[in-house]
Write a structure and sequence with these properties.
The structure holds 3 protein chains of 3 kinds.
Chain A (H helix, E strand, L loop, with lengths): L1 H33 L2 H7 L17 H15 L5 E5 L8 E6 L11 E6 L16 H10 L5 H25 L16 H14 L1 H14 L1 H4 L2 H6 L3 H9 L18 H11 L5 E7 L7 E6 L11 E5 L5 E4 L6 H14 L5 H32 L8 H30 L7 H22 L3 H25 L4 H7 L2 H23 L9 H16 L1
Antiparallel strand pairs in A: 1-2, 1-4, 2-3, 4-5, 5-6, 6-7
Helix pairs in contact in A: 1-4, 1-5, 1-13, 1-14, 2-4, 5-7, 6-13, 7-12, 13-14, 14-15, 14-16, 16-18, 17-18
Chain B lengths: L1 H18 L2 H8 L5 H26 L1 H24 L4 H21 L1
Helix pairs in contact in B: 1-3, 1-4, 1-5, 3-4
Chain C lengths: L1 H55 L4 H25 L3 H23 L3
The chains are: A alpha+beta, B mainly alpha, C mainly alpha.
């Protein structure tokens, strides 16, 4: 019974993993990149590179908000939503935004943004139209080009499979602590197994945590049933109960003057004397149904729900505020989401998250390569490959090598596309997917060892060219970032070089595709497996 | 400084775990470890890793536990690279590691 | 005599081929059925079980819902693993159907849907 249990777990691990590994690679890759979402957005906006958050950041917030309201009253008095985003450590610019008129049948018209250098108070000209890090963030769970709801269901099921594969992986890896530090190079599929084991074990708590909490972030779509049974009006009821500050009032057509923001701010600072505010958003300004939401920073608490105050925008009364003390369950639930998004993380923790995310990508990549390698090793010398094997090998090459290349293409397009290109942000994304498609087409025809090496070289060159093109097209470069202490930009360029180096190592050292085995090797292998079976 | 101490304690712990293993000890010191030595390594490892966890949690509560997971990942990665490719450098690395633990510990107790 | 043995062996080989095909089919059916039990059966069971949990937990309403929602994933993955760990397919289906309908029954009695 025990033996068959292990066998069935191994079987399940293999097939469940294989079924979704490429999708999971995409999800992990995009997720890992989006830990640096704000930094990437900053890199993609050269106009903001020299903007720095002011020294007295918190002290200036009041005057920034007041001038923001004045600006928005002039620029978009008819708009349905206003937003004021105050400078933070990671986003140095001050941003005033109002919603553009909604096109017929759309629920949101897009933001008209106005960026301001908080130190001089001048408008920042020449910001380019780009999605930046938000592209990867949405790609992580919306998969782009697919209907959002369908995409999220797909992502949900892939993550469920991931969780199942993780648990069964722990069960079948009997020597989990024994082989913790060993990695045997140049041993065919054995090395890939070692790589798979090391990358999963070294970040195992992270992998389990990130998969579980990832599912929790989409849980209301996957399992709405508890909320549906307990509340009359389902999920809406639960949300209104748990976070009263999210309550929506119905838009009224009557106009009414917006209350002076000073009175609101007085109340805010009596509630939170030394608040570090991040965002003010106003719904239906200048209407009878106006509401004003004020959000503050969470500090270093493991919480995802930011402290929020909700005011009536006409008479200035406080409608709701987040509870100062959460119940144990709320804390538990909320910290799960916070763990996943890692918004709270300081730079050190963010890098550790990134490292673990990369380990996750390596884990998935080695897993799917290993499957193909094993089949190849078992095959006779001149036996033709089956369609299934060819498909797996093609998808491996297309996904594992295509995605990094596509990412480089995205960044290069950001620098090289002319500023006046219509729908520029979409063109950048198009560059991403076109590159990926090109690699996939390439993999359709050839996917042997030389192609892996070729693509590794192309990837290395692409990675190097990102900082080079950046240096040629903007005022800054790797060295000036280092000298000026612009760490976000410096790390971005440095990471490109690090990954370029890794791709060179891959091209030179790592065999990703075995040639047919010589008979001698095979007999040795079978003798070894026999020995293992006996012991 | 706190972070440095926590990370290095974690690294030390996993290093001890590795040295308690017959194979890894032989790779580094070229001799067999005695059973007693292995046991001592294990004890040192557990003390060190618990100390690291305790320090991180005391320092940052729930956030610290998260950091600790990251430290573990980083330590295992570093050790894996050393033991698999440069086993002869493990001695130097261990010495460096212990010095950093001492220095940062001393720094924190003094200031 | 010789011709007959050839014929016999032909029949035998056809039989064994049929047998193989049959076995391959049952194997495939068993695999598909197991995956179906794990994915759909596990989903339905988890849905009903956690819905029940959310109304019987002795906590504040929102707390009970949040707690059972966070537990859904745990329950689902346990059921999933269990389906692949148990040998007999019949046992899996019977257990899933019985527990699910049991939970559904209690749930509908408590909510007064019947």
């Amino acid at each position: 019974m025990k033996e068959s249990f292990f066998r069935s777990m191994t079987w399940m691990h293999t097939w469940v993993g294989l079924l979704v590994c490429w999708l999971l690679y995409l999800i992990f890759f995009a997720g890992t990149v989006s830990f640096f979402r704000d930094e990437i957005t900053l890199w993609n906006q050269p106009a903001l590179h020299n903007v720095q958050a002011p020294e007295q950041r918190v002290a200036q917030q009041r005057s920034q908000i007041i001038s923001g309201i004045n600006y928005l009253q002039n620029a978009g008095p008819e708009s349905t939503r206003w937003g004021i985003y105050l400078p933070t450590e990671r986003k140095p610019q001050l941003n005033y935004a109002y919603e553009k008129p909604r096109p017929e049948g759309k629920r949101f018209g897009g933001w008209q943004e106005h960026n301001i250098n908080p130190q001089t108070g001048d408008e920042i000209a020449q910001t380019r139209d780009t999605r930046g890090g938000n592209f990867f963030y949405r790609l992580h769970f919306d998969l782009h080009y697919i209907d959002v709801r369908t995409a999220r269901w797909i992502v949900c099921f892939a993550s469920l499979f991931m969780l199942v594969a993780l648990i069964s992986g722990v069960v079948i890896h009997k020597r989990i602590f024994k082989d913790m530090f060993s990695f045997r190079a140049n041993k065919g599929s054995r090395s890939w197994l070692d790589g798979h084991n090391v990358s999963s074990v070294l970040a195992l708590p992270f992998h389990i945590m990130i998969t579980y909490t990832g599912l929790i972030t989409l849980i209301f779509m996957l399992f709405p049933y508890p909320a549906l049974t307990a509340y009359e009006d389902g999920i809406r009821g639960l949300f209104n109960d748990v976070s009263p500050t999210n309550v929506r009032t119905k838009t009224s057509p009557d106009s009414a003057p917006l209350i002076a923001i000073d009175t609101i701010l007085d109340q805010v600072y009596t509630n939170w004397p030394d608040a570090d505010l991040t965002q003010i958003s106003i719904r239906d300004p200048n209407k009878a149904s106006a509401t004003i939401t004020v959000r503050a920073d969470t500090g270093s608490l493991v919480r995802d729900q930011t402290p929020t105050l909700l005011f009536n925008g006409v008479d200035g009364s406080l409608i709701a505020k987040t509870a100062a003390q959460l119940t144990n369950t709320e804390v538990f639930y909320d910290s799960l989401t916070a763990l996943h998004t890692g918004r709270l993380a300081n730079p050190l923790l963010r890098w550790l998250y990134f490292l673990c995310g990369v380990a996750g990508c390596v884990m998935i990549a080695t897993g799917c390569i290993m499957w193909a390698k094993r089949i190849r090793e078992r095959m006779k010398k001149d036996q033709p490959a089956t369609i299934g094997l060819k498909l797996v090998e093609g998808l491996n090459l297309a996904t594992l090598m295509g995605l990094p290349l596509a990412t480089c293409a995205f960044f290069i397009a950001n620098r090289l596309l002319p500023m006046t290109t219509p729908e520029r942000a979409d063109k950048e994304i198009l560059a991403f997917f076109m590159t990926w498609l090109a690699v996939a087409l390439f993999a359709l025809f050839k996917r042997a060892r030389p192609q892996w090496i070729l693509l590794a070289w192309i990837n290395a060159i692409a990675c190097i060219s990102v900082p080079v093109i950046n240096a040629l097209t903007t005022n800054g470069n790797l060295i000036s970032y280092l000298l000026n202490g612009q760490w976000a930009l410096f790390s971005f360029d440095l990471m490109c070089l690090v990954f370029a180096a890794l791709f060179v190592v891959q091209a030179k050292k790592i065999p990703t595709h075995t040639p047919a085995k010589t008979p001698q090797q095979r007999t040795r292998r079978s003798a070894k497996t026999k020995l293992q079976e006996q012991s | 400084m706190h972070e440095l101490l926590q990370l290095n304690l974690c690294l030390l712990a996993f290093n001890c775990f590795a040295l308690a293993k017959f194979n890894h000890y032989r790779d580094v010191f070229k001799t067999r470890p005695s059973d007693k030595l292995s046991k001592q390594f294990l004890i040192a490892a557990w003390i060190s890793i618990l100390l690291s966890l305790a320090l991180s949690v005391v320092q940052n509560n729930g956030y610290g536990a998260l950091l600790f997971c990251g430290y573990m990942a980083l330590s295992v990665l570093i050790l894996m690279i050393f033991y698999s490719f440069k086993a002869s450098w493990v001695k130097i690395m261990s010495a460096l590691n212990i010095t950093v633990v001492m220095l940062s510990g001393l720094f924190l107790t003094v200031f | 005599m010789h011709a007959q043995s050839v014929k016999n062996s032909q029949i035998l080989s056809i039989r064994s081929k049929l047998n193989q095909a049959y076995q391959a089919h049952t194997y495939r059916f068993a695999v598909i059925s197991r995956f179906f039990a794990a994915i759909v059966g596990g989903y339905v069971f988890t849905a009903v079980f956690t819905a029940l949990l959310s109304i019987i937990l002795p906590l504040k309403k929102s707390d009970a819902v949040l707690l059972s929602i966070t537990l859904t994933i745990l329950v689902y993955s346990c059921v999933f693993i269990w389906v692949f760990a148990v040998k007999s397919l019949n046992k899996i289906w019977i257990t899933i159907l019985l527990t699910t309908s049991g939970c559904a029954l209690i749930l509908s009695l408590l909510k007064g849907w019947l």
